[in-house]
Amino acid sequence: MENKIQRAREKLIVALDVASTEEAVALTRQLAPYAGVFKVGMQLFYSAGPEVVRHIKEQGVKVFLDLKLHDIPNTVAQAAKALAGLGADIINVHAAGGTAMLQAAAQAVRERAATLGLPAPLVIAVTVLTSIDQRTFNQEMGLTGEIEDRVKAWALLTRDAGLDGVVASPRETSVIRQVCGEEFAIITPGIRPAWSVSGDQKRIMTPAQAISAGSTYLVVGRPITGTDNPAVAAQKILQEMAEVL
Ligand SMILES: O=c1ccn([C@@H]2O[C@H](COP(=O)(O)O)[C@@H](O)[C@H]2O)c(=O)[nH]1
């Protein structure tokens, strides 16, 4: 079981959705025994600044820089190049930016990392946000068809552009795995243990369901960080994951 707990720890990404470096470092120290990767999203990055990545890495964990770049290829490439210099282990962009943007981002990140002698971060594309349900997708966003088909198409686009994987709901993990293969990274937010509330997340699964579906990484924020005792919550989630590994 100890081996399975270790494997589960490597797959758990904690979303540090807080406003200061101090809070982020304190959470990282507390949760590092249970999670191998910590996610710096827009709230933390824009509040605390780029240096926060270094402070989190100093705790001996990996960092997923979740800034979801989406613009014209040149702009994204220049931004991705700047981010690659921060030492993050995973960087992401939006698949909706299209092949030229995806390729420009991946090339810029890999070249910059090589120049600095850093390991190349995984470059990942966000498909359809986990907060979007079928009604919003069709009626508000004006997109036709099923979410699952769009996710599948964007996952293939991402793979063909040479990126390392996607962000999607764990509900789409099986179909992505089928078409993109075993090596393709599938990062899944929208994780809700049975004892937590879904809130703004719409396409959700439990930690055990997401692992069973084949997700590479599970992103968990509020079900851990929003509780009175984040370490206990993280331990429970780790246990749920390990039981099906
Ligand atoms: O489709 C997406 C892409 C990114 N996220 C991010 O993951 C975490 C989830 O946090 P919870 O508190 O567990 O809901 C959050 O930082 C999002 O920005 C996502 O949820 N869905």
From TrEMBL:
Lineage: superkingdom: Bacteria
Catalyzed reaction equations: orotidine 5'-phosphate + H(+) = UMP + CO2
Taxonomic path: Bacteria, Bacillati, Bacillota, Clostridia, Eubacteriales
Task of the protein: Catalyzes the decarboxylation of orotidine 5'-monophosphate (OMP) to uridine 5'-monophosphate (UMP).
Alphabetical list of PANTHER family matching this protein: OROTIDINE 5'-PHOSPHATE DECARBOXYLASE
Annotated metabolic or biological route of this protein: Pyrimidine metabolism; UMP biosynthesis via de novo pathway; UMP from orotate: step 2/2
Assembly mode: Homodimer.
Family: Belongs to the OMP decarboxylase family. Type 1 subfamily.
Record domain Orotidine 5'-phosphate decarboxylase: where: 11-237
EC number: 4.1.1.23
UniProt-listed Pfam families: OMPdecase
Active-site residues (renumbered): 66, 68, 71
The protein's name in its UniProt record: Orotidine 5'-phosphate decarboxylase
One GO CC term on file: cytosol
A biological process term (GO) from this entry: 'de novo' pyrimidine nucleobase biosynthetic process
Record GO terms (molecular function): orotidine-5'-phosphate decarboxylase activity
Annotated keywords: Decarboxylase, Lyase, Pyrimidine biosynthesis
Binding site for substrate: 17, 39, 66-75, 130, 192, 201, 221-222
